[in-house]
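chain below, 479 aa
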Amino acid sequence: MPLMTKTNLLRSRRTKILATLGPASTTEDMIRALFEAGVDVFRLNFSHGKVEDHKARLDIIRKIEKETGRPIGIVADLQGPKLRVGRFKEGKIDLQEGQTLRLDLDTTEGDEARVNLPHPEVIGALAKGALILLDDGKVRLEVTEKGKDYLVTRVIAGKTLSNNKGFNIPGTILPLDALTEKDRRDLAAALDMGVDWVAQSFVQKPEDVAEAKKLIAGRAGLIAKIEKPSALQHMAEIIDLCDAIMLARGDLGVEIPPEEVPSTQKKIVRQVRYAGKPIIVATQMLESMIDSPAPTRAEASDVATAVYDGTDCVMLSAETASGKYPLEAVTIMSRIAERVEKDDSYRAIVDADHPTAKAEAADAITVAADQVARDIRASCITTYTSSGTTTLRTARLRPAMPILCLTEREHTARRMALSYGVYPVVVETVHNFGDAVKVAQRVAKTESLAAKGEKFVMTAGVPFGTPGSTNILRVAWVE
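prediction:
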């Protein structure tokens, strides 16, 4: 495959940006503008829109990728079980604290006395005293009575409830499959399109991830979305089974106390990073920019905190999918990440929390490469990889310099676009280390990662083409 170096789009930050496409960002001009403004990976949200719409956007992304020569990752985000109440005769009802509201399987439109809850599994899983949160926690109900096909609840908080609002049930593992029939259809369609990542919603236990992994069968990377508290109890197993983690703080923040969200974020980012897998911090990052051209100071601080925590990627949802200022949202998110990474305290924080080498030669080589690059002030660290394993090992160290990922596999390059500091480039196949060094010298210079006479550190595995065989470290110069 020819070298992909038509357009230099080297970012001045290491943290990546994942942006969701939707009605506000569906044209080729807008998608191109978002990419040029700083988007590294695009998200197709299968909770909305038709498969044909997602395919059209994917085709535009691939066209931009071909024209720029820059690998672009694409994530298909599956909807998962859609937990919502039914509809009301008047579209909504007024609530008063202490009033009784019945939830049942009757599909007729509701009123102030009752409403449809079209999930018998949920009714079966709840007991007297259980808490139900509706509309992102704005309405809170306590179960006071349970029947075979109904629940009687008392309103604890909330003033109005409108049609089809979603609900959460803290502290309860729901007997629902993480993959619905719709998800299975969407997954098949997404894989046929050629997406690079699949994000799985409603993950509660390791078995959910194992099922999705089996269905994907290596055709894409699997991102487990952490949005249920039950998943927190199985994080080690879930991380081990998936290829990346998305911390979806919206739903998670409804089901766990707000004061626990920041510490949970830090813990998960660290845990996933140490495992050598990408971590995405998502949901409500710049939410006010759905309607405003500038974020709140709290939102800017939130994005900055995720960067200080060492996340691989920060995500925009409705801000770019349906907001009024999608381009401005990407631009300010990129500026925040750049500013944080230039802060002296950022490098001190990242370096102070450095993962040690695992008891294997490949990881020891990678850790040594990072240290050597620091000592000689290398312009970049270059990894030659087939599967991306070598590059991920390097990214988990959060080096101060860019990581030039050279691979002959296009799908590997696209997946690496999600990882911290990685600049993926598709190159021709080489058969020995000497040729690999020559390719690295040429690409580093062409992509402005290193100037003539500057040093870089390179790792690779011999024999070439054998995943996970990193066993060589070399210091080289750009000629």
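The radius of gyration is 24 Å. The chain has three domains: 16-81+179-351, 92-168, 361-477.
thats it, cya
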